[in-house]
Amino acid sequence: MSEPRSRRAAVTGIGVVAPNGTSTETFWKSVQEGRNVLDKVTREGCEHLPMKVAGEVRDFDPAAAVEERLIVQTDRFTHFAMAAADLALEDARLGRADTDGSPFDIGVVTAAGSGGGEFGQRELQQLWGKGSRFVGPYQSIAWFYAASTGQISIRRGFKGPCSVVAADEAGGLDALAHAARAVRRGTDVIVAGSTEAPIAPYSVVCQLGYEELSRETDPARAYRPFTEQACGFVPAEGGAMLVVEDTGSARRRGLPVRATLDGHASTFTGASRWAESRAGLAQAIRGALAEAGCAPEEVDVVFADALGVPEADRAEALAITDVLGAHGRRVPVTAPKTGIGRGYCAAPVLDTAAAVLAMEHGLIPPTPGVFDICHDLDLVTGSARAARPRTALVLSRGLMGSNSALVLRHGAAE
Amino acid sequence: MSITVDELSELMKKAAGVTVSPADLQDRADSGFDVLGVDSLGLLGIVGELENRHGVPMPVDAERCKTPRQFLDLVNSAMPAGA
């Protein structure tokens, strides 16, 4: 289907519920300060498991964010999603009064990697412990990947295009790209993003099978990509939702275009085949730049996938220079997720939120806890670097083999 | 024995997360479950919980009842007399 060139997708609202902040303001403050909030896993039932470090969202009260009915009927990942969507919509000044009159002009796209593990575990324990008659009916909707999309759209009365991307961690970027396409095709607003809640016993046990998972017990040493001490990644919960809106619609509403989503591409190179991800990620970057009409030298900052597995880190560093050439060794690269953890599909959405905020604030946030880089990259470490980034490249790879790249431009460039 | 408004109120909270006090529920016994905030999955959960608690199957139409009064009348008609 052709997309009219006259329409362009902007970011007009950001809502964050993350381990380092449950509002966009606290998230950005923590990110720009390079705070490391990774800590020992304290979630009930998880303490004895060999995944010792994670990014837990501790400053979140579901009862304060969503209705009692929805707390009972949905999983923690959907509580995060509804809360983040509310924050994003408020940020974009879209209240019920603004959307009720034209419900078909707003849709929802989320990405999900693990679904509702905590809810699912509770009901599956009923199944094994007592029998099928003791499984609650809300199990049928709460643990699905699509739950957050459905609940946000029903709760806010949105009837525009709704979908869920279940495409590995890079699906977070794919969801934003899907939202941008829907906007270019004619829907004014898409609430898009991802939240995850993979810190429940069942979900943790599922992750223990990943050889890329960090087994380090010291939070300060558990997630150090691009260094010789890299020993895997640390998972996280939470995430972000963005309001993706037609630039014309934003202008009509008198809202600033904070950034534009201009290019995206994704490839697939196979589960845990990290050396091969070099070519796949490079191809995704090429595709995203081409769609954005962006020359390699125009990229002002790269938000790296930063898996923390030596072979994967090497592949990513090489992919960046494969496409950006000599510029790839000079362009500032950052990975705020080393201070937050890697929230699966939510990780690249948080990176995208950070990229928008970095362009707004003229500040490239650092990579917490990472020093002594062993790759040919200008990784921003220590403290934030003052800059005037106008174009950001966000990278993401999934453990199952997906690679995606997203190009954003600062709103002033629009 | 029969299922009371009190028990229904308690189950609405437990199974569907909807809080309506027993007194309120008594007053609003002819309101639709949808108006009270209980959807079809919620009512299904309430029926399942009652069956597990009381050890008797509920009538097949129980989950299709539109109002608390209809529901209580129907499920109580299915409770064994004197049980």
Key terms:
heterodimer; A: 414 residues; alpha/beta; Peroxisomal Thiolase, Chain A, domain 1; 2 domains; 15 strands; globular; B: Non-ribosomal Peptide Synthetase Peptidyl Carrier Protein, Chain A; 5 helices; 0% strand
Short account of what is shown:
Chain B: Pfam families: PP-binding. Chain B: Residues 2-83 form the Carrier domain. With 414 residues, chain A is α/β, with parallel strands linked by helices.
Task: Describe the model.
- Chain B: InterPro entries: ACP-like_sf, PP-bd_ACP.
- Chain B: This is Acyl carrier protein.
- Chain B: Pfam families: PP-binding (PF00550).
- The complex is a heterodimer of chains A (about 425) and B (about 80).
- By secondary structure, chain A is α/β, with parallel strands linked by helices.
- Chain A folds into 2 domains: about 10-250, Thiolase/Chalcone synthase (Peroxisomal Thiolase, Chain A, domain 1, 3-Layer(aba) Sandwich), CATH 3.40.47; about 260-414, Peroxisomal Thiolase, Chain A, domain 1.
- Helix content of chain A is about 35%, strand content about 20%.
- Chain A contains 15 helices and 15 strands.
- Chain A has helices at about 25-35, 60-65, 70-75, 75-90, 95-100, 115-130, 140, 145-155, 170-185, 200-205, 245-250, 275-290, 310-325, 325-330, 345-360, and strands at about 10-15, 40, 55, 105-110, 160-165, 190-195, 240-245, 260-270, 300-305, 330-335, 365, 380, 385, 390-395, 400-410.
- In chain A, the strands form 3 sheets. In chain A, strands 5-4-6-7-1-8-15-14-9-10-12 form an 11-stranded mixed sheet, with helices on both faces. A two-stranded antiparallel ribbon of chain A has the order 2-3. A two-stranded antiparallel sheet of chain A has the order 11-13.
- In chain A, a hairpin with a 4-residue loop joins strand 14 and strand 15.
- In chain A, helix 4 (about 75-90) crosses helix 8 (about 145-155).
- Chain A starts with 8 loop residues before the first strand and ends with a strand.
- The mean pLDDT of chain A is about 95.
- Chain B has about 80 residues and is mainly alpha-helical.
- Chain B has one domain (about 5-80): Non-ribosomal Peptide Synthetase Peptidyl Carrier Protein, Chain A (Orthogonal Bundle), CATH 1.10.1200.10.
- Chain B has 5 helices and no strands.
- In chain B, helix 1 (about 5-15) crosses helix 4 (about 40-55).
- The longest helix of chain B is centred in the middle third of the chain and has 15 residues, at about 40-55.
- The relative contact order of chain B is 0.21.
- The mean pLDDT of chain B is about 90.
- The interface of A and B includes residues 136 and 140 of A.
